[in-house]
Amino acid sequence: MTTTPVKTTSATSAVSAASTTSATSTTSTTSTTSATSALSAASATETIRAASAGSWTLGDREVHRIGFGAMRLPQTGRALAADAVPRDRDRAIGVLRRAVELGVNHIDTAAFYFSPLRSANELINRALAPYPDDLVITTKVGPGRDPSGAWLPHATPEQLRGQVEENLRQLGRDHLDVVNLRIVGADSIAERFGALAELRAAGLVRHLGLSNVRPEHLAEARAIAPVVCVQNPYGIGVRPDQDEFVRTCGEQGVAFVPFYAIAGAGRTAGARGADAAEVRAVARAHGVSAAQVRLAWTLHRGPHVLAIPGTGDPDHLAANVAAGALRLSEDELTLLDRLHQGGDGGDGSDGDDRTRPTGTAEAVS
């Protein structure tokens, strides 16, 4: 397992300016005197690859800490909507292939990621099979949708095998690398996680994880079978109450995989609203986008934190991967941490995913 990327010193003037801007609620765009960051210089001369973010051992599989989330791939606009507009097939396939070319070897998907005419799993199969030896595909089970796209009740323990087999068929695999049990609410997960542990023992699943859970769920699951990752909503201003849980996962050797790190309250629709002055100032100091700052901040939360930003745009893909090379200074991290603790990332985030109703698009990542 690698350590957190070394943090380099960058423009403290930008941090000071951001603090002043935040305090006075202005939106000044006064330029800083700092030099362009190493990330901007590298971007101008060479392609930045996923390995720049470092790596983490997920179970027995080493993955780069910048991965790819497939939720947005099957459609344009809001994800998981029954009337979503299907994305151009060749463009989606091209984005997946380019991700692998850039060194991405961790892809997050689900059988319920689909739009009319497009399925994330089938696009992955078409684009990448036969799969590279180092590629880890993580999927999730629990939620389900009928062919029309309408949400179904979450799967019972007896139904989880069918969901696992559906993922196997769509991906063209004889086993799944990682399967996350996705839940909503505070109920016990023992029966459902136990059912997945049986599938792991049968060889259909290599590793198990959890999604949208609380610390007590992780403890309950670890008493049944090893857990390699937790996938929860988290980002600047998104669920600051998760900070201790993020640290706990690291102490237990469990990867923490944030979702909605960029989208915030926009959730399945994507980012919305203006970023906070602090985020914009740090972005200007490095010559990068606010989204890249958000991704870099999550990676700085610990060496066990893995990012899975999703997109159907090749330029956004390259920018997301490049965010893994962005090193934030201690002053910048302090500034962003203060913003995070205030629960306001500047995009209108309320960030709380704990009470979303079961079986709705808002309850699923």
Top keywords for this entry?
365 residues; alpha/beta; two-stranded antiparallel ribbon; 15 strands; globular
Write the layout of secondary structure elements.
Elements: H1 12-24, H2 38-45, E1 55-58, E2 61-64, E3 68-69, E4 75-76, E5 85-86, H3 89-101, E6 106-108, E7 114-115, E8 118-119, H4 120-128, E9 136-141, E10 144-145, E11 151-152, H5 160-171, E12 176-182, H6 190-201, E13 205-211, H7 215-222, E14 229-233, H8 243-251, E15 255-259, H9 277-286, H10 290-299, H11 314-322, H12 330-341
Parallel strand pairs: 3-6, 6-9, 9-12, 12-13, 13-14, 14-15
Antiparallel strand pairs: 1-2, 4-5, 7-8, 10-11
Helix pairs in contact: 1-9, 3-4, 3-11, 9-10
Structural write-up:
- The strands form five sheets. Strands 3-6-9-12-13-14-15 form a seven-stranded parallel β-sheet.
- By secondary structure, it is of the alpha/beta class.
- Strand 1 and strand 2 form a beta hairpin.
- The chain has helices at residues 12-24, 38-45, 89-101, 120-128, 160-171, 190-201, 215-222, 243-251, 277-286, 290-299, 314-322, 330-341; strands spanning 55-58, 61-64, 68-69, 75-76, 85-86, 106-108, 114-115, 118-119, 136-141, 144-145, 151-152, 176-182, 205-211, 229-233, 255-259.
Taken as a percent bin, the fraction of beta residues is: 15-25%
Biggest sheet descriptor:
7 strands, parallel
By DSSP, the count of extended strands is 15
**Spans of at least 5 consecutive residues with low confidence:** 1-38, 264-271, 347-365
Radius of gyration: 20 Å
Overall pLDDT score = 84
Helix percent reads: 25-40%
Q: What general form does the structure show?
A: globular
- Taking strands numbered 1, 2, ... along the chain, how are they ordered across the largest sheet? 3-6-9-12-13-14-15
